[in-house]
Structures are given as structure tokens and as C-alpha cells.
Amino acid sequence: MDTYNVLLIGSGGREHSIAWKLAQSERLGKLYTAPGNPGTAQYGTNVSIDPLKFEEVESFVTDNKIELVVVGPEAPLVAGIADYLSDKNIPVFGPKASAALLEGSKEFAKDFMMKYEIPTADYAVFGSEEFDDALKFIQLKDSYPIVLKADGLAGGKGVFICDNEEEAQKRLNKLKHDKSLSEAADRLVVEEFMEGEEASVFVISDGHTSHVIHNAQDHKRIGEGDTGLNTGGMGAYCPAPVLTDEILEEVREKIINPTIAGMQLEESAYSGILYLGLMITDDGPKVVEYNCRFGDPECQVILPPLENDLLDLFLATTQQRLDEKSIHINNDHYCCVVLSSEGYPVEYEKGKEITGIDEVDEGIFVFHAGTTQKDGKLLSNGGRVLNVVGSGNTLQQAIDKTYKNIDHVQFENRYYRKDIGHKGLRRP
């Protein structure tokens, strides 16, 4: 059997879970992760390469006989890493820049959905010099809540749900003047608020054939009961009971198929992971957002039940052989709780010693996100620090196992939500 040397791009919990899954493949030769974290180092070698410096990536790939590059985060994909490496005849798992625009520009995504009659919320778009016009538009609408979205990448922190005009004015000012958001908010999408329950569906596509891998429900808000600021994600569970077989079939017919076909017609065939952020409304499923990669922390709950060889799926995708494959998942439930640094997603401290990971029960996964190793100690090094994942025959079992094991993993100023998965428990 041929083996393949792989370079995995990224450094978060998503990449740790991908590295863990790739390491199970008999087809894996050497695994490198750039830049990686102490978790990915368990399965290969971390390398100090900036993923946005494509020439550095190319040199490393050539020097180390890499046969597949797997891109975890969105920023390199939107910046065109798949285009650059493909032009050098280096196979890449991930969409090219023109396809990654589905995440890279909310304006592009909304216009695309309107063109191909994919269900989504009504919207209007304003330039950065037109924020006063945006406020006038909101005042004329006089319908709250209203949703404000920075057009570009903002790490999950560029979306605001405003309950009144005063809050809309406040958030518009933040989008305009906050240096961390101003570039992403060069253009602004004002969107109607959709009532319903959110869930995510993950699709793998080679540009022609597509398969649903699994579904999950994320918890974006920092506070329990879905309150407070948006984050990159505070936890997830799968499967999401709101996505019944009937709704999943509707998602396939009205969203997945038109999206894949529409991207072909746009001459931007979509190859890689397509994340569908959905709102399940009384009128059926509607698209909240597209992402051009696995979600984080959803990836940490959808890869453990996947029975396929992940490397085999990635290779089939890059070789446009996905029609030869089918997806197999087990019937267990999974729950992931993110352990974060207190103060995230605004200001927080780093460098807190982490203990107790080796004390968790067998079958519990602890995926690293914002961690670093120094002087033999594991330290916190980000807002989202660790992901604790448990499983069970029922969602309640998965939740109970996860929270029981959180008690083992300790660091100063640790914060986590205590209600991950509770929405799923309210459904049969």
C-alpha cells in the first residue's frame, strides 16, 4: 500500500482532531503540522512555517517530499494557498480562493444564494463609508432584532444581533472603529433576523460529487443560555436532533445540490469541506453562513464517529474520485466543551499551567487549541485553550461523561459553559 507524507496547516483544536484522525490511516507516511500545537505533536512533527507565506510552504513541501497538503483554517484558503500550491502541482485538500469566497465574503455568499435560489435571510449591503446609510436603512425597517455582519473574515466575532436602534448604532460604531474588525467590515451586510434553531451540516465535495459527513450544533455565545458576545465556539455536540431525516433531505435538495452545481456554473468548482451553518425555521432550513473548512469545535465531535479512513477521503477528493466512496459513521453521541481563558473573547491572560489531562477517563478526548509547551510544562496560550470530548449511547451520557472529566483538567482562570448540549436534550 502506498503511503503519503502530509502537511497539515493550522494550530487549533480542529487541527489536533484532524491529526489524530489522520494518524489512524495505514496510508499515512510522515505527518507534519504548521505551526501545530502540543496536541498535534503527538502524531508527527510541528514545523515553524507561516501558512500565509506560500513560498515557505512550497519549499518545505518540496524538501520533505510532501504528497498532500491539508488546510485547516479559513485564512490561508481565502488568501489562495490552494491556487498557489496547485499551480506547482502540489495536491491540496481545500477549496481554491474563488470557491473559498463563500466564507471570505458574506456579500458574495448572499448574492450567490439569491442567484441560485438557495433559502437564506433577506439582506442589504453597505460600504464602509455608507454606515450612516446602513443606520437609516435599519431605522426605516424598524424591525428588530436585526443582524449586522462584517463582510470579511473576523474569526467568528464579526456578527452582531441587535435588539434595538441604540444597540445597532453601538455595533455599527464598533465595526467601523475597532481595529480588529475594521478590515473585515470594509463592507457590511445587514440581514433580517431568522427565528429558529441553528445547526451545522458538513459536506465533503470534489467539485462534482458531494457527501454529507455528519451534522452538529455549535454554541457560539460566550454565556450560558446563548447570551453575551459571539466567540469562535464554546462547545458542540452531534448529532443535532433538530436535523431530522426529513430536514436533512430538504437540506440536500434545496441547499447542498444547488450550491455545488452553482459553483460549477460560476467556474469555481468547490473541492474540500463545505460547512453549512443553518437556521431551521418554520419555513424549513435556511443558510446562515457558509464556511470553507471544518468548524471548530464541531470538527472535534464529527471526526470521532467517522468510521472512514480520513486520509483516504482526502485523497479521493483531490483526485476527483469521491463518487467511489460512501460515508460511514457510528451511532454514538458526542459532546465537546471548550475550556477557555477567563475574559475571552476580549482580554485574557496566557501562560497558566495546565494539569490533569492524563487523569481523564479512557475514551475521553482532550484536544489542544491554545496551548504551548515550555520548560516541560503545558501552558495556556490562547482564548480557547482545550476541548474535552466525551461520547455515549445517548446525548445525556455524552454530556455527563464530558462534564465529569472537565473536573480533572485544571488551569488558573479557567472558564467554560455548563449548558453545552442542553438544547438537544429538549428534543425527543
Automatic annotation (TrEMBL):
The keyword ATP-binding applies. Its EC number is 6.3.4.13. It is an enzyme of class 6 (ligase). Pathway: Purine metabolism; IMP biosynthesis via de novo pathway; N(1)-(5-phospho-D-ribosyl)glycinamide from 5-phospho-alpha-D-ribose 1-diphosphate: step 2/2. It comes from the Bacteria. Belongs to the GARS family. The keyword Cytoplasm does not apply. It catalyses: 5-phospho-beta-D-ribosylamine + glycine + ATP = N(1)-(5-phospho-beta-D-ribosyl)glycinamide + ADP + phosphate + H(+). Residues 110-319 form the ATP-grasp domain. This is Phosphoribosylamine--glycine ligase. Keywords: ATP-binding, Ligase, Nucleotide-binding, Purine biosynthesis. PROSITE patterns: ATP_GRASP (PS50975), GARS (PS00184). GO terms for molecular function: phosphoribosylamine-glycine ligase activity. Its cofactor is Mn(2+); Mg(2+).
